[in-house]
Structure formats: C-alpha cells, structure tokens
Amino acid sequence: MMSLMAHHTDRTSRRIALLKALAHPSRLAIAEALQSGERCVCELTELVGADMSTVSKHLSLMRAAGLLEMEKRGLNVFYRLRCPCLLDFFECVDGLSPATPVLRRRKIR
Question: pTM for this structure?
Fold first, then answer.
C-alpha cells in the first residue's frame, strides 16, 4: 500500500510534469487549439509555424506528460486533449492580475 507521503509526491510530480509540458508558447498554443477538438499534426505544424520535427517533439513531450492522446488514420496522425477541463484552469488564471485580490481558503477548525 502506498503511503500518504508517497502518494502526495507522485501526484505532485505528475502535476509538475503537466505544468512543464505547457510552459512553452508553442505547446500552450497547441493545447488551446485542441480545446475545440482534435487536430491533424499538419494543422498543428501550420499553427505553430515550425517544422514538423519541432512540432513532433512538442507533441511527444505533451503526450509523455499525459496531456494528449493520438490516433493514426492512414498517413495522418490526429491529437486531442485527454482532459479538456484543463482549459478551465486557464480561464481561472486569465481572471488573475496583479491587482486582483487572491481568494483565500477558509481554515477548517
């Protein structure tokens, strides 16, 4: 049985990997584009404006972090977000600014 601390560390490591996978303008653009549904790798290459090799590396990193699923259909490869709710997080973050007060959790007594 996994200890509580080991579970916490594992969860934290997964979260960090996910955030790192999004911490690049091209990868963030890919995630945002996939918000509306799956896309062919050729569309994502055009969106990012980089060569196929570079985009493939970005997609591979995002898949390794658990963000994406891929499906081969003939000669084309399609990608989709595994958890579209992730983008709700971005909407929440978009509401933050240096002038926005931080909501604090109530302490449980």
Answer: 0.77
